[in-house]
Amino acid sequence: MKNKFIVVEGLENAGKTTACNIIIDILNKYGIKREKILLTREPGGTPIAESLRTIITNQKQQEHITKITELLVIYAARAQLLDNVIKPALKCGKWVISDRHNLSSHAYQGGGRQLNSDLIDELSYIVLGDFYPDITFYLDITPDICLQRLKIQGNLDRIEQESLDFFERTRNFYLKKIQQNDNIIFIDATQSLDRVVQNLKKYLLNWLKNQ
Ligand code: T5A
Fold this sequence. Notes:
Blueprint: E1 5-10, H1 16-29, E2 37-41, H2 47-57, H3 67-91, E3 95-99, H4 102-112, H5 117-128, E4 135-140, H6 143-153, H7 164-179, E5 184-188, H8 193-209
Parallel strand pairs: 1-3, 1-4, 2-3, 4-5
Helix pairs in contact: 1-8, 2-3, 3-5, 4-5, 4-7, 6-7
The structure holds P1-(5'-adenosyl)P5-(5'-thymidyl)pentaphosphate (T5A).
Keywords: ATP-binding, Kinase, Nucleotide biosynthesis, Nucleotide-binding, Transferase
GO molecular function, one term: dTMP kinase activity
Domain Thymidylate kinase-like: 8-198
C-alpha cells in the first residue's frame, strides 16, 4: 500500500493529540513500522515553524496581532513544514500524520476571525497548490465542551482565550467544510475517550482496507 498523509482536526482539546497517537498504534498493528511514520503538528513541526507558532499562541504579546498577520504567519509556518518536512517524508515513503493542517485555517481564520474566504483560498493555493491530505479525521466537540476542557487545563494560550462565539463560528465552519468534502470523516468527540478511540479505529481500518 502506498504511504499516505493523514490529518486530525478539531477544536481545542477535542482529543487530536490522543487521536494522532492512536492512529500510529493502528498503523503499527497494520504492519507499518514506527520508523516509517512521521508525526507532526501545525503550526509548527520545523524549528522556524515552531518559532512562528509561539507568535500565534503566546498570550503575552508586546502588541496586538492583526488578523491578517495571524493568517500570514500560519501560512508561513505551513510553507516551511510542507516543503522541508511533509513532502520530503512522503517522497521517501513515510506515512505522515499531522495534528491540524489547512482546514484549521479555513475554520479558525475564515470562520472564527471572519476573514474573507477568497483570501484564504488564494493563500492555500499559493502555499499548497493541489496538495491535499489523503484523509482527515475531524473530532467534533461543542464549544461548551471545548471551554469546559480548557478550564480544566488552565494556563490558556492566545487563541484558547477566545469567546464562545469565536469557537461557535469556528466549529460551524468545520461542519460546513465537512459537508463539501468526502475525505473528511466526522467523529463525535463529545463521547467518552474509549468510544472516540473505537470509532476512530473502525473508520481508519475500513479506509485502510480500501486503499
Ligand atoms: N490554529 C492552528 C489556527 O488558528 N489556524 C491554523 O491554521 C492552525 C494550524 C494551536 C492553536 O493554533 C490555532 C488553533 C489552536 O488554537 P493546537 O496545538 O492544535 O493548536 O492546540 P489545541 O487545539 O489546543 O490542541 P491540544 O493539544 O490542547 O488538544 P487536543 O490535541 O485536541 O487534545 P488532547 O488529545 O491533547 O486532549 C486534551 C485533553 O482533553 C481530554 C484529554 O484526556 C486531555 O486531558 N480529552 C477528553 N476528555 C474526555 N472525553 C474525551 N472524549 C476526551 N478527549 C480528550
